[in-house]
Each structure stands twice: as C-alpha cells, then as structure tokens.
C-alpha cells in the first residue's frame, strides 16, 4: 500500500479524519450543557486580554484553519474542474467510477443499517440497565476509535484470510469474505461502530428511566415502550450518530484498503479509487471522485450543525 | 429508514451483477502494468471470443508486487498472477497455490516480456548523469523506492550492484558502491509508482531509477520537454514472470482460459502489445520492428550475477541482510 505517495489519499483521509475528530469533540449532550453554561459562569477577565494578543490568537486560528481545511478543499475542487466541467462528468461516468460509487453506497447502507441496530441496542443496554461488565462494554465500544484503521483491516485478514483462523473452513465451503463485499462491509462496520452508540449513550443516560417506568406501569409492553417513548426521545441524537457513521463509512480508507484486494470495478470504494486514479496520473478523474467525498463532508457538516441545534432545543424543552 | 434502504440495497446488488461475461478471470499484477494489461485484456478478450465464441472478462488488481503476492496467499481469488519478480510468485507457490515448477511451464522463464532499469532525469540533464558512477557523486539526489517493499526497487538495487561488481571486480566493492548510492537517496517510497510521483509530481531529486516502461510512461504523460530518459551502458535484465494460480483456477474451473490468457503473451499480437507499452518484447521479429524504441543496453541477468532470486533475496533483502546493514549506516 502506498499511502504515502499521493495527495489524493490524504484528502480522503482528511475527511475520514475530520469525521473522526468531529465526534470526539462533539459528544452531544454534556458538552452542549457546558457550552450553554459557560457564558454565564465564565469570569469576565477572559475578555480583558490585551487587544493585540486576542488579535494574534484569532489570526492564528483562522490561518491554521485556512491552511489545513479550506486550502485542501479548494485544491480538490480546482483540480477536479481544471479540464472543464465536461471532463469532470466524463470522469464520474466511467464504469470504474460508477462501480466505486455504487459499492461505496452499498457498503454505507449495510454498515449504517447494522450499526443503527447494534448502536441502539448497546446504548439501550448501557443506559437503562445495571449489570456487571458494563464499563468493559463501554470500553469495547470505544475500541475502534483507538485502533489504527490498518490494524482493524488486518484483524479481518487474520480471521478470514486463507491462512487465517476461519480461512480453511471458508475455503472449503467456497465462502468469500475477504477481498469481497462482505469483508469490506465488516471492516467498515467495525470502524464505524462507535458512532451511533456514542451519540446515544450520554443522551439516554441523561433522560433516565422514569418515562419508561411510567409507561410500563400503565401497562405498555416492552416494544411499545421502546417505540412510543424511547425512540421519539432519542431521534435527534440517533440521526446525529447515523450521519457521522455514514460519513465515516463512505470515507474510510485504511481498513478497507487492507481487505479490498483492489479488484477494479468490483472491490474499490471511492476513497481507494481516488488513490488509484492519482497513481495513474488521471488527476482530473481522481479529484472528481475526491470532490464527491468532499461534498459529502460539507453536507455532513451542515446537517451536523442543524442536528446539534435540534438536540440543543430538545434538551432545553426537556430541562424546563 | 431501514425500509427505505432495502430496495436501494437490492437495486445495487442487482445492478452490480447484471453484466456478467461467460467467463471471468482475475489477474493480480503489480503497479506499473496497469496500462499494459488494459491493452492486453482487450486484445485477448477479442481474440478469445473470435476463437471460442465465448466472452471473457478480465478483472485487474494492482499494487506493490510483494503485497499483491501476500493478498493472493491470504485468499484473493486470482486466476493468474503477473508480478514484478519470480521471488513473489515463489512465495505464492510456497503455500501450495501454484505448482513449484511454474517457471518451467511457459517459455523463457515464464517471462513473456522483459524490461530493464534506466534513469529518468530532468530536461537538459543538469547534473550530467550518464552512467551508474554518476549516481554516487556528492550532491546528486537519487530517487528509488524501498527494496524491502517494492519489486522494482529490488531490480534497481541489483542493477547497481551488478554493474559495480562487474566493473570493480568484487562483491565488497559492489557493496561499498551500493552503500554510497543509498547515501544519495533522500526518501524511500514503498512502491515504484510512488517514487515516480515523488520525482515527477513533487519535483524531488535529480534522477529517478525506474523501470524502463515506467520512465517512458512518465515521459508520455508529462511531456518530453520535461524529462529525459538516460539509458546506462549496462543494466539488469528484469524478467517479470506470469503464472496460473493452480489452486484457484482448478476450483473455479477456469484453467483452460487462464492458460490461454498467458499463452496469448507469446503470440505476435501479445508481443506487439508489450512493445507498444514500452516493455521489451521477446519475439525477435517484433523486437527488430521496435528496435528504435529501446536504447541499446548491455543486459546481465540475475542468474549470472546473483545466482537466482532465492539467493539474492536471502543475501540482500531478508531481515538483517545486506540492504539492512547498508541502510542503517
């Protein structure tokens, strides 16, 4: 894998990275709480910093953002359209590009759906019940965040590779997991697992169990309670988690690269194709695909902002 | 949400399986052959259809030669492997996926096309690089990928070593020469294409050690007004080999097509495709036809100088081998 070799992977990784860092920064409920309280309780001396220092700090922040976020985005779009709009769309209409886009959507659909289910179950179990091993479970959920994506991919090679743990059995039964859609889906699910659960746990913990208890004491069944009480309460947080999960699922490079096998038109996702096209000197095509991923990142950002506001409002109305 | 996604998933699955050829092969190859196999696959598919009436689709996978071999060992369902050096196919054979005598099953060491290692320099050759000796001069910056991970880089390394051993007469002096050369290497990329991008796109270095075909490709893509190819008087004969992956072809029932596919390399059409893509053809007639495309280089083989790949690999590139010792200092 020549991850070092191109500008292109770094742009796609950048998005994946941005998505990942977003999450660790934006743990919804408690942080927002703090943010709301801060202006009231923060000492006023913060504002007595001398003007020049404030100016320097703000300039530094803006310069940093421009260089590391805005500039790469501009480069991606400028390169994508450098040979005109026709070349741009011709590049996207290539069979290999279409295949990569389809595969990426398919993988995102599979992993987001499954992580939606797993994430809700995990968050439900952790926030509504007390049991031994709970802390351990929370740690496990966080594991994919702390493991390098390349390692996440290698784990699946070790498990499902021909020389791996299940390899001989899979070979004998002619089941293809590695270097095929299931392997890519598995690696993506692993990498994106924490997003939904992480978005829900603090929210559900904060909401407590009173409403559910009330519903049950009024005779509601477990499922009724879940669909009538819990789900409506967590819908914004859930959407928030799904959004980030989706962004990462589409942008994942490292783990997918290890398990993909790079079969053209078959197992290359969009981020992988960006690197391949770049290495083939097809810069317009490479950046055209990258621009789609960049647009995904921008859409994600906008929706994230909207959802955060919703979450915030939901909490305000709850709190009063 | 789930309900809305199901038809989408189903639709995608259908769309991706809608266009299937009669037979499908997977060719797992190394980095620089992307363009070569696009051409070759098209020609073979047409020839095969004409002869048998069956349509064949050849899928390609490219990457560093070593990591591609690793993927096949890990279960990538390659019907054929077309890698940068025999050692990598030996590794696959070592796991029993390819018969041990694979290199005897096709003519000419199962290497239907060859290449060599040349120098790519910037326009006007500002550092005046003509031969291997110019690479160890102080102030000359040399770009080559890492021999630990790149097949092309191993050819680069062995070409330099072979030249020095022939010229200065001993392995010790060759070792000194190669050590001096790597003193001039500022960065080691993991693959041949990565190094080309470093040299061509990022403008790092004075000279790129590259596959001849890779140098021609870079020149075609970026213009003769930017880069010149310098062929040293002596270099190594690089023989990228091909083989049917027996275990996979037998399981999938594709052996006949896979064998026909590789044999097509040895036809006039196949040889011509190699030559057009700047790989040196084996066929004397085609070679004569394309004589002007390739510089006259005195070529030595890995068997001559190093006693074959297995020995070379063990001595030079294995953990703690000569490359490790040289590069540490």
**Average predicted confidence as pLDDT of chain A:** 84
Report how far apart the termini of chain A are: 55 Å
Order of helices and strands of chain A: HHHHHHHHHHHHHH
**What coarse outline of chain A follows from CA principal-axis ratios?**
globular
Largest interface: A-B, 40 and 37 residues
User: What would you report as the Rg of chain A, rounded to the nearest angstrom?
Assistant: 22 Å
Low-confidence parts of chain A: 1-40
Strand tally of chain A: 0
Q: Could you spell the SSE succession of chain B in H and E letters?
A: HEHEHEHHEEHHHEHEEEHHHEHEHHH
Ranges of chain B where pLDDT stays below 50 over 5 or more residues in a row are 12-18
Approximate strand percentage of chain B: 15-25%
Derived from helix and strand composition plus strand pairing, the structural class of chain A reads mainly alpha
Helix content of chain B: 40-55%
- Rg on CA atoms of chain B, Å: 21 Å
Topology:
The complex is a heterodimer of chains A (320) and B (329).
Chain A: H1 7-25, H2 28-41, H3 51-80, H4 85-93, H5 95-128, H6 134-146, H7 149-160, H8 167-172, H9 181-207, H10 210-217, H11 222-251, H12 254-260, H13 270-279, H14 283-319
Chain B: H1 2-17, E1 23-30, H2 34-52, E2 56-63, H3 65-73, E3 80-82, H4 86-94, H5 107-110, E4 113-122, E5 142-143, H6 151-168, H7 171-183, H8 192-200, E6 207-211, H9 212-222, E7 227-230, E8 234-238, E9 242-244, H10 246-252, H11 255-263, H12 268-276, E10 280-281, H13 284-289, E11 298-300, H14 302-306, H15 309-317, H16 322-328
Parallel strand pairs in B: 1-2, 1-3, 5-6, 8-11
Antiparallel strand pairs in B: 3-9, 4-6, 4-7, 4-8, 4-10
